[in-house]
Design brief:
single chain, mainly alpha, two-stranded antiparallel sheet
């Protein structure tokens, strides 16, 4: 068997080499950056995962260069966003919009959406998450504490009385129903959840934990057709991409019915959020049983997407993904760490976990890593946007380190 740590370091070395002077991946160095004259939300997808993977590598190897790069990715991630704004308030962006409209009016979208590109709730969430990672690795550095407080305050402006707890700040793409004003996507909101838990770990503020629990209920409640008040689809055994009964163009899918489809991003991410939150709840908390049910069933759903060779697809047996195989392995590790893998579940999933681990190590070749870890089998998924390929390579590093730890 190839050495998982050597492979993980090879990927981490790429993350270090890709970094630009301001902290995010340099488009001239990193192959997984959307080509655009302006920085956009999609560009912000990868830095938190590169940071997290590099922090894990630093913890394993004690190599300072991994920590230094992780710190820069983390600081970038909690620096670029702003508070929610009405259409007239984002002055610099409005100036650029006016200039672009003069050149070509067709290039400018709805000002409500464009002006809030950098004030979406997932951005505040991921900022708090990276602040937590940074702070735990720099316990004597308090200079960003006020920034974290401001991100939490920004996030509260997204609160809603509906069951999804926080608006994501934009509707589904190409949605024509005026009643659907917010997408309530489960992957966006679990970033909020991760941010809240990380921020709580640093501050121990009761209101922060209460906010995380309130959001967790969105993932614990069963989805009801046409409602954003619950996200777990009983017939699937995992969380839907979004709660609305409409087809949209989504990342990696040309078209997808949101409320009838699960995918590895939310499956892995929600399990990470809920298991981490669980560790801060008192023993015997009334939500524990349903948290365990949702998380264990979702991990089983992820492994139902596994091919016979061990690779795991994104929403079914669609295409080979290094990062989705890693996601399933990490999700399993999360539920095992909190004691939710009983003998029966271990018996059902153990052979699949072993097969996935073997496939991941065997297929994480230099060539496949350079391709972003995507191999077309059915073509029902696509490797776009490219930032998500870097994100999934971050997950791959984490899974490889867990495989290595198992072998020690």
């Amino acid at each position: 068997m190839r050495d998982p740590l050597t492979i993980a370091r090879s990927i981490g070395d790429r993350f270090v080499a890709w970094q630009g002077t301001i902290g995010r991946p340099d488009p001239e160095k990193c192959p997984f950056v959307t080509t655009s004259s302006d920085f956009g939300p999609t560009h912000a997808h990868s830095p938190p995962y590169l940071a997290q993977a590099l922090y894990r590598l630093y913890e394993r190897t004690n190599e300072v260069r991994y920590k230094e790069a992780a710190d820069r990715y983390a600081v970038f991630t909690f620096s670029f966003m702003r508070d929610p704004v009405p259409p007239v308030a984002d002055r610099q962006r409005n100036l650029r919009l006016s200039q672009r409209m003069e050149r070509d009016p067709t290039t400018v979208g709805d000002p409500r959406t464009v002006n809030n590109l950098f004030s979406r709730s997932w951005m505040q969430g991921v900022g708090l998450w990276c602040y937590g990672e940074f702070r735990s690795h720099n316990p004597d550095e308090s200079c960003f504490d006020a920034r974290a407080d401001s991100l939490f305050d920004y996030l509260q402006q997204h609160r809603t009385d509906r069951g999804h707890a926080y608006n994501i700040g934009y509707p589904p793409s190409d949605c024509q129903d005026p009643a659907i004003t917010d997408g309530a996507f489960t992957d966006d909101l679990r970033w909020v959840g991760m941010g809240l838990v990380h921020y709580y770990e640093q501050t121990r503020r009761d209101e922060v934990l209460a906010s995380a629990v309130r959001l967790a209920d969105y993932y614990l409640r069963s989805h009801q057709p046409g409602s954003p008040d619950g996200a777990f689809v009983e017939s699937l055994g995992t969380w839907c991409i979004g709660p609305w009964p409409t087809e949209i163009a989504a990342e990696h899918f040309p078209s997808v019915r949101m409320d009838e489809t699960g995918w590895g991003f939310s499956a892995r991410g929600a399990v990470e959020f809920l298991t981490r939150l669980h560790t801060w709840l008192p023993e015997g908390h009334p939500r524990e049983a349903v948290m365990r049910d949702r998380c264990t069933r979702s991990v089983e759903w992820q492994f139902s997407c596994q091919f016979a060779d061990g690779a795991v697809g994104m929403h079914t047996q669609d295409d080979h993904w290094l990062g989705m195989t890693a996601a399933a392995l990490s999700a399993y590790d999360h539920i095992r760490a909190v004691g939710w893998v009983d003998e029966a579940l271990a018996e059902r999933l153990g052979p699949r976990v072993t097969l996935a681990s073997e496939w991941l190590v065997a297929n994480a070749t230099e060539e496949f890593i350079d391709q972003g870890g995507y191999r077309k089998i059915t073509g029902r998924t696509t490797p776009h946007p490219p930032e998500n390929l870097a994100w999934l390579l971050g997950w791959t590093v984490e899974a490889l380190l867990r495989i290595e730890a198992e072998a020690l």
